[in-house]
TrEMBL record:
It comes from Neoaquamicrobium sediminum. The keyword Signal applies. InterPro entries: DUF2259_secreted. Keywords: Signal. Residues 1-22 form the signal peptide. This is DUF2259 domain-containing protein.
Length: 241
């Protein structure tokens, strides 16, 4: 009995040690679009590994130019372990009201046409094909995205952590003879990605604005070097349907 008890205690201790050294995975919250579909917004939030500080980041993207709106992204971290995630999120939300109101985004959230969280093991992390609307029989052209990873020179500080990866996102033609189109291809690694090691398609959000052109946003999870293990953060690529 003592032997079994000792093994159990050792196993539990090792499990706790591994758990304590895990990287942090930011939770994704899709905020929505502005009424005309011109802006897409999303939020990521979590507890930073190593420090234990809560953070919340908000991104507001021009869907026509694939660029951040002035004054964004909004990045909040409260350097206090006793602060809550709600505190960080509320602060980021307050700052975001000057960019696009929460009420407008919520009223035009669109449809999460496809989703594959970073915990998904059975799906293809580099491919997602969706019907843009929940209309059956289907009346819309399907949207299919493919993500390709490739080695790319990164900041010098990343050299000891492994191969730094960039990505390209391709929209696959669905009609016979239709050519694929390139939505994004990295030419350099922004410092905000913090030594990226890999990517996966996490979700596709679609929106059909009244009287406007339908749009979508592909949410991509970035696996990068963290303080205690791999971290996951989010980026988005918009496009027109």
């Amino acid at each position: 009995m003592r032997l079994f008890a000792a093994i159990a205690i050792f196993t539990a201790t090792q499990f706790c040690a591994v758990s304590a050294r895990a990287g942090d995975t930011a939770e994704l919250n899709i905020l929505g679009f502005t009424a005309n579909g011109g802006v897409f917004a999303f939020e990521e939030f979590g507890i930073q590994d190593g420090s234990g500080f809560p953070y919340a980041n908000r991104f507001y993207i021009d869907t026509a130019t694939d660029s951040f709106l002035p004054g964004t992204p909004i990045r909040v971290r409260i350097d206090d372990e006793t602060a809550s995630l709600d505190d960080a999120r509320a602060k980021a939300r307050s700052q975001g009201e000057a960019i696009a109101s929460q009420a407008e985004l919520k009223a035009n959230r669109g449809l999460t046409a496809g989703a594959s969280p970073v915990t998904e093991l059975s799906g293809d992390p580099h491919r997602m094909a969706v019907n843009p609307r929940a209309v059956f029989p289907v009346i819309d052209t399907p949207l299919e995205l493919r993500l390709e990873e490739f080695a790319l020179e990164g900041p010098e500080l990343c050299e000891s952590f492994g191969t730094v990866m960039g990505y390209r996102l391709i929209r696959v033609g669905v009609a016979p003879g239709e050519a694929a189109s390139l939505l994004h291809e990295d030419t350099s690694i922004p410092s905000s990605r913090n030594c990226p090691l890999g990517y996966r398609i996490g979700a596709v959000q679609t929106f059909f604005p009244e009287g406007g052109d339908p749009v979508f946003a592909a949410l991509i999870a970035v696996r990068s070097v963290g303080f205690e293990g791999p971290d996951h953060r989010w980026i988005a690529v918009p496009g027109k349907l």
